[in-house]
Amino acid sequence: MSVGVLILDTRFPRIPGDVGHPGTFPFPVLYERIRDASPQRVVRDGDPALLTPFCEGAQALVRRGAAAISTTCGFLVLFQDALAGAVDVPVLTSSLLLVPLVARLAGPGRPIGILTIERRSLTPAHLAAAGIGPAVPVVVGGMEDAGAGHFARQILEDEPELDVEACRAEHRAAARQLVAEHPEIAAIVLECANMPPYRADVQAVTGRPVWDLTDLIRLVMGSGPTMSTI
């Protein structure tokens, strides 16, 4: 089976581990680029005009044989319900969907850390769309506060080059800061689909379990039949 990925209209390099890199997964990946879906429009603007092209892209991926649909931006969780209603296969827009599960695994009262590409853009509406309600304790940290902000700038401003070592150092710095300010954090979920390449760095400096969108994609793809066959 193939997973279908709705990919933003970007030019920045996508390295192994990134959801937008086909070598990240042990199964075939189909991509559908959504024209004019820039990081600015998705992350900072939450542009509702993009909903229709994303739904059409999801339907196109299903016609091409996708057994599940994912995306390359966790902020698309705002479109979770609409996309799930537009196709008859599982839809997993964001790693944020994992947070309620990880919180249950961690036990009552133990907050989950969310490391996001830009903290100020992650709103209560995004959390609610992922099923993260008042009963799910979370703490949010942002990459824009780490170091010189290479990672956030290079992704959100869609720069043609990616300084991987600078991004790695910033992930380590942001993760250290998150657990230093909130040592009660039980686990960390990486919001951004461009963050999984740096997962080991976050694990190394925090000593916490770390989850990302690739975990959710592998879980769904390992579940067997598509929804339409049940």
Descriptors:
single chain; 230 residues; alpha/beta; Rossmann fold; 4-stranded parallel sheet; globular
Task: Describe this protein's structure.
With 230 residues, this protein is of the alpha/beta class. Helix content is 36%, strand content 16%. The chain folds into 2 domains: 2-94 and 215-229, Rossmann fold; 96-212, 3-Layer(aba) Sandwich (Rossmann fold), CATH 3.40.50. It has 9 helices and 8 strands. The strands form 2 sheets. Strands 2-1-3-4 form a 4-stranded parallel sheet, sandwiched between helices. The longest helix is centred in the last third of the chain and has 18 residues, at 164-181. It starts with a strand and ends in a 9-residue tail after the last helix.
Radius of gyration equals 17 Å
Helix-strand pattern: EEHHEHEHEHEHHEHEH
Shape: globular
- Give the end-to-end Cα distance, rounded to a whole number of Å: 16 Å
Largest beta-sheet characterization: 4 strands, parallel
Strand content: 15-25%
- Assembly type of the chains comes to single chain
- CATH first level of the largest domain: which class? Alpha Beta
